[in-house]
Amino acid sequence: MADFREQTDDHADTVMPRGAAARTAKLASLPLGIAGRAVGGWGRRLTGQSAEEVNTALSAKAAEQLFEVLGTLKGGAMKFGQALSVFEAAVPDELAAPYRDALTKLQAAAHPMPARQTHRVLAEQLGRGWRDRFADFADEPAASASIGQVHRAVWHDGREVAVKVQYPGADEALRSDLRQLQRFARLFQALVPGTDVKPLLAELAARMDEELDYRLEADNQRGFAKTFAGDDHVLVPRVLASAPKVVVSEWVCGTPFAHIIREGTTEQRNRAGRLLAEFHYSSPARARLLHSDPHPGNFMLLDDGRLGVIDFGAVARLPNGTPPMLGVIMRLALEGRSAELLDALRAEGFVRPGTRLDADDVYTYLAPLVAPLTQERFHFTRRWAQQQALRMGDTRSQDFRTGRSLNLPPNWLLIHRVTAGAVGILCQLDAELELRAIVERWQPGFVAE
């Protein structure tokens, strides 16, 4: 691919930084900047400002810098920011407020690339006559994401379409981020000694690398669209054209989940939550695929009450559906069968060979996480998410020590990501729904035979 930086000097800040050194320096600026502000804040406290005033100001500045750096870098760094924007539901309210807006922006915003750069990519991917495919094309992007931006257009047959165009250099930038991530394997290993970090990072790198080929994303979307065609509850837009760095699909209009999270009605929140949960649990059984990028920017509530789903770059292929062992583990935890629960976790690789764990400690750690399945209807709240985060993050607690001793097998990476991410969205939505009935219907192994 041609290097567009020389042709866009007047828009240098919009081009994805490619050099590993430059990207590493930008990433390093985050902790350095936050540390510097902390020193300044200590000085302001000496001059009489209250700790609350100083901490509020520091959090706001840190959030601003987080958005600026991750949004400029895009690539893997921005994907990290998007993941954080889901889990902010577990951050205490007094600390979360300044981060919430900055992180949520990352779900749908980044510096756009210039129009001539966009046209160059379209010509390379769709041919010099790319304009003939469209009756109209908006140069201003409608949305930006981690490795590409979306333009609204009209297809030659009159249908409104979304045109997703990958940023030049996104492939180099993302792979650079992943290499940096893998260099920190020892650090991650120290943080989670029970986890075999290297194969987990390799699996993460392989799955994120797949997202660079929009032809794979288009195939994923076609699979979902075929399965849910005519569905009463889910709409997946059809793909009209695809290339390695461009994909064209039908445009979908609806109320974004981010808007519902901010100001939705109780009815909207509950419906959005129920549709999301059913989509995630039913997809492996129906499509043999699992949408694996759970953040509010990928979901919307349509005017007809259906769930609109977009962005199929991260998808787990599950030819046999969701592993039945997930349902078995849920059921054993619900029934308090701690010895059998530990045996099941060992057999599946959640406990590494040679790791000694007490069965009751493992049960105590996991039992609160299946609490939503103990009731006919469960109310997912930020407070509940915060309680779980505090419980598992308290370094003085047995739960913290137990969690550090558990392993995440690489083949469970995307399933874990979706489960945790979807719960995060449900808590942001403040949704109340019948999760147990959904799990009973769609999760193999949950109902004893």
Written overview of the protein:
- This protein has helices spanning 20-46, 51-73, 75-87, 93-105, 115-126, 170-183, 185-191, 197-210, 214-228, 257-263, 266-287, 324-335, 338-348, 359-366, 382-393, 398-405, 413-429, 435-442, and strands spanning 134-137, 143-144, 148-155, 160-166, 234-235, 239-243, 246-250, 255-256, 289-291, 299-301, 307-309, 315-317, 378-379, 432-433.
- It is an alpha+beta fold and 449 residues long.
- It folds into 4 domains: 17-73 and 75-105, no CATH class; 115-168 and 213-250, Phosphorylase Kinase, domain 1 (2-Layer Sandwich), CATH 3.30.200.20; 171-209; 254-449, no CATH class.
- Helix 2 (51-73) packs across helix 3, helix 2 (51-73) packs parallel to helix 4 (93-105) and helix 12 packs antiparallel against helix 13 (338-348).
- It is globular, with a radius of gyration of 23 Å.
- Residues 1-15, 27-59 and 81-88 have low confidence and may be disordered.
- Belongs to the protein kinase superfamily. ADCK protein kinase family.
User: What is the domain tally?
Assistant: 4
Structural class: alpha+beta
Write down the Rg: 23 Å
Unreliable parts: 1-15, 27-59, 81-88
**Overall geometry:** globular
The overall pLDDT average reads 80
Figure out the total of helices.
18
The main sheet comes to: 6 strands, antiparallel
Strand content range = 5-15%
Q: Span from first to last CA?
A: 55 Å
Number of strands: 14
Fraction in helix: 40-55%
Keywords: ATP-binding, Kinase, Nucleotide-binding, Transferase, Ubiquinone
GO molecular function: ATP binding; kinase activity
Domain ABC1 atypical kinase-like: 105-320
Family: Belongs to the protein kinase superfamily. ADCK protein kinase family.
